Amino acid sequence: MTDLNIGTRTLGKASPLTVSTLGLGCMGMSAFYGAADEDTAIAVIHRALDLGVTFLDTADSYGPFTNERLVGKAIAGRRDEVVLATKFGRVQRPDGSVVIDGHPEYVRAACDASLQRLGVDHIDLYYQHRVDKTVPIEETVGAMAELVQAGKVRHIGLSEASAATIRRAHAVHPITALQTEYSLFTRDLEDEILPTLRELGIGLVPYSPLGRGLLTGRLEVDRLPPDDVRRTSFFPRFQGEALDANLALVAKVRELAEAKGVTPGQLALAWVLAQGDDIVPIPGTKRVTYLEENVAAASITLTEEDLAALEQAVPRGAVVGDRYGDMSPIDT
């Protein structure tokens, strides 16, 4: 693929942040989806920057900590090209369990640690990874606002927050973006969360816009590495009869994609992009080939007929299985 300009979109209105039309989710380069290779991951990040994908997403919990170090190493010498997003709040204990921490003192400490691992003097977009239901959101966002005032953070965001939480947070300090799962397979936020974001002028950053790989049409679950979490009950959509039902939906997407001369993954990404210019998906990948395929989706224009055909092929709610085996950490 030759280099191209994929353009930009703006997240947020009260605290606007211009980012590339597509971002790059870096999580899988270090955690959850099988073995990682640092050299290959850095090559993917460098190729992304060359293609104009300058919005990079990581988190302190990916690894934990290893993904931020990887991204920091990859962007060394190219910081001025990057819009850098990271997250705090998911704390992994020595026994492997995870707790959510939104206490102000933790917010400050986590930010300083992320800055050090990333090797930068500021974070462009700093998210609370999950809402701490034991700490008033006003206290957490108040601490995040202090980081903005100190120059350590430029913009703040939330992840997997409910509409009510978003409103309370935005009243303390402008929220630039919400990161949450959104794809042809996950559309529950369309009821209340997406209208709230648009009312308040907050951008949406969908993670897993390809349904954790299912919507690419290439994923063979029985051939995934043993340590890939998609093989576990943590992701019900990949198990047994649910997987069979969901692959049948993917087959319909494949038919539409072939008729349009694109891949299923490109069609699925184009659908997300078509939902509004305030939406910037962050598909993740560990391969340059798949990165280039994803980038090409930004140039695909879907007609009303295309969108209607996708709606018929994958009706909202048709996917079988919850997003996670344990939905309790999700703010509702």
Automatic annotation (TrEMBL):
GO cellular component, one term: cytoplasm
Pfam families membership: Aldo_ket_red
GO molecular function, one term: oxidoreductase activity
Domain NADP-dependent oxidoreductase per the UniProt entry, residue ranges: 22-313
Top-level lineage group: Bacteria
Keyword terms of this UniProt record: Oxidoreductase
Matches recorded under Gene3D superfamilies: NADP-dependent oxidoreductase domain
Name used for this protein in its record: Aryl-alcohol dehydrogenase-like predicted oxidoreductase
